[in-house]
């Protein structure tokens, strides 16, 4: 689960991490009062969405009057912000973060992720922070440090000093950075984070460190023990189809293609999408109905897939292991009749009672292309999708 920047900074404040003075607003009429409350003569206004690249898309501005804060809020609240990290529809802006302006001397980069191979939390740091950190990773990898921290020992200070050297911090800043890293590590562990990113971590004109941004992802599998963080969930930032799928315990990810995919098993789903791409098509989604592809789950899956207006064909690829293919076929037929599917459907069944399943599909008196071979089924779906244009 992702958090907004302002929510991440609320957590930063709880863990004594240095952040700029600021406040979030949900109405444009509050903008001027918040600027006056913060004080100063310059402010930064930031549209709050779960995506990077806001600055380049006009979602972050430096202003020098409270009236401009109101204009910015009126411009963005209730609108959708499109960045290089969103789809073409963008994400809805429901809130604006207003902060005091920080005089920046140097921009740095700091993040933390879970490294499954080493079973450590790895902090990633660079002396070259800001909006173009991706270019640094590509063109100057020597400017980036990857520092794993073993939670079973107490060498956090040594790790902090190693990172501080790459960040080119002086002695005073290193003394600030050591407790900062310790608090970030504590935040990461206690709140079950999967990603923490501060870009940029800045040195201001006084030589002090400040967290100017906050990107936080929480491990969704651990949310049951983080009820306070669950309350921060913003469903407006999710694809509506993905949110509906999650409610129905279906694994769904929206993509940009026109061939809807319904598969049981994540590995088989990935293989199905690869096969579609091999034959020149583009999958419209990843959808794993799970090991028990019941009629109810298949019906819900069809409904979700068909909510995408770009879908021209549906490819169903089910492997019957414990679940019999004849039962799956009956579920597919019933689901197609219930949902009233009016686009071509290609079904590939393999495994337990596959022949009986194919017989049920062929005798169903509905427009189903039943094909046993995955390659042939994917190729047929691609051909049908091309004919739809």
Give the secondary structure arrangement, pairings included.
Elements: H1 5-14, E1 22-25, H2 31-38, E2 43-47, E3 60-63, H3 66-76, E4 80-81, E5 91-92, E6 96-100, E7 104-115, E8 120-126, H4 133-139, E9 144-149, H5 156-167, H6 171-190, E10 193-204, E11 209-211, E12 215-218, H7 227-230, H8 240-247, E13 251-254, E14 259-263, H9 266-278, E15 285-288, H10 295-306, E16 313-320, H11 325-339, E17 345-351, H12 354-362, E18 368-370, H13 374-387
Helix pairs in contact: 2-3, 5-6, 8-10, 10-11, 11-12
Name the CATH superfamily assignment of the largest domain: ATP-grasp fold, B domain
**Low-confidence sequence ranges:** none
Helix content: 25-40%
- Please tell me the total number of domains: 3
Distance between the termini: 37 Å
Number of strands: 18
Number of helices: 13
Q: What's the gyration radius in Å?
A: 25 Å
By CATH, the architecture of the largest domain is named 2-Layer Sandwich
Strand content: 15-25%
The outline comes out as elongated
Instruction: Describe the main β-sheet briefly.
Output: 6 strands, antiparallel
Q: Mean pLDDT, as a whole number?
A: 91
In CATH, the topology of the largest domain is named D-amino Acid Aminotransferase, Chain A, domain 1
Q: Identify the CATH class of the largest domain.
A: Alpha Beta
Name the structural class: alpha+beta
Oligomer: single chain
């Amino acid at each position: 689960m992702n958090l907004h920047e302002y929510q991440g900074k609320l957590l930063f404040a709880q863990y004594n991490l240095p952040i700029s003075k600021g406040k979030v607003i949900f109405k444009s009429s509050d903008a001027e009062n918040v600027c006056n409350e913060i004080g100063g003569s310059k402010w930064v206004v930031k549209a709050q969405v779960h995506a990077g690249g806001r600055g380049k898309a006009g979602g972050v501005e430096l202003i020098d009057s409270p009236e401009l804060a109101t204009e910015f809020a009126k411009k963005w609240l209730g609108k959708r912000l499109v960045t290089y990290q969103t789809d073409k529809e963008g994400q809805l802006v429901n809130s604006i973060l207003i902060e005091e302006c920080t005089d920046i001397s140097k921009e740095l980069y700091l993040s933390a992720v879970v490294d499954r191979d080493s079973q450590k939390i790895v902090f990633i740091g660079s002396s070259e922070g800001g909006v173009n950190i991706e270019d640094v990773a590509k063109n100057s990898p020597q400017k980036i440090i990857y520092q794993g921290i073993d939670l079973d020992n107490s060498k956090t200070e040594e790790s902090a000093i190693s990172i501080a050297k790459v960040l080119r911090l002086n002695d005073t800043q290193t003394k600030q950075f050591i407790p900062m890293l310790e608090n970030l590590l504590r935040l990461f562990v206690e709140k079950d984070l999967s990603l923490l990113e501060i870009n940029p971590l800045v040195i201001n004109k006084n030589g002090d460190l400040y967290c100017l941004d906050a990107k936080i992802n929480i491990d969704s599998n651990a949310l049951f023990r983080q009820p306070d963080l669950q309350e921060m969930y913003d469903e407006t930032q999710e694809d509506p189809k993905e949110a509906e799928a999650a409610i129905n315990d279906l694994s769904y990810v929206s993509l940009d293609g026109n061939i809807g995919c319904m598969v049981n098993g994540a590995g088989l789903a990935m293989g199905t999408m690869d096969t579609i791409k091999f034959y020149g098509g583009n999958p419209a989604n990843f959808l794993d109905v799970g090991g028990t592809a019941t009629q109810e789950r298949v019906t819900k899956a069809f409904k979700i897939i068909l909510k995408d207006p770009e879908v021209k064909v549906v490819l169903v690829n089910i492997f019957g292991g414990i679940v019999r293919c004849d039962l799956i076929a009956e579920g597919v037929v019933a689901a197609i009749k219930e949902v009233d599917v009016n686009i071509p459907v290609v079904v590939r069944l393999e495994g337990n009672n596959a022949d009986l399943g194919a017989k049920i599909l062929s005798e169903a008196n509905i427009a189903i292309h039943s094909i046993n071979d995955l390659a042939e089924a994917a190729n047929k779906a691609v051909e049908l999708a091309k004919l739809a244009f």
